Structures are given as structure tokens and as C-alpha cells.
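Question: does this match?
>
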Amino acid sequence: MADKGNEGMVYGLSTTVSNLGNPFSRAVSNAIFELFTPKLSDIQKYIEDSHSFRHTVALSFGVSYFFLVF
């Protein structure tokens, strides 16, 4: 994949691009999570453990993984 003498640069570039996925997905996902109802930051919702809140949490994981792959 890399020409002779450019192996280190190609490895560094591919590693950097690979490592940017996780912080990018967290940043975008956190911006989107602000729109969710009920709010994910409400501790009481975790204690109540309602069906709608479980759905919201599952959706938040789906959004995070989508942007991680994207």
C-alpha cells in the first residue's frame, strides 16, 4: 500500500484517522442526545427504569455506534 520509504507516514496517517473516530462519534452523539426525551442526564430515570427510558438509552447506543462506524 505504501511506497518504499513512506511506510511510517502511511502507518501514522492510518492510525490517526482510526483514532479520530471515537472522539468524533462521542461529540456528535452528545449533541444529538440533548434532543432526547426523557433526558439521559436525569439520574432518577435510571432508578425508575421505565420501558420508554430503556428505549431512549438503546437508541443512544445506536446513534453512538452509527457515528463511530461513519
Summary: The mean pLDDT is 84. The radius of gyration is 18 Å. Residues 48 and 54 are 10 Å apart (CA to CA). The first helix runs from residue 7 to 33.
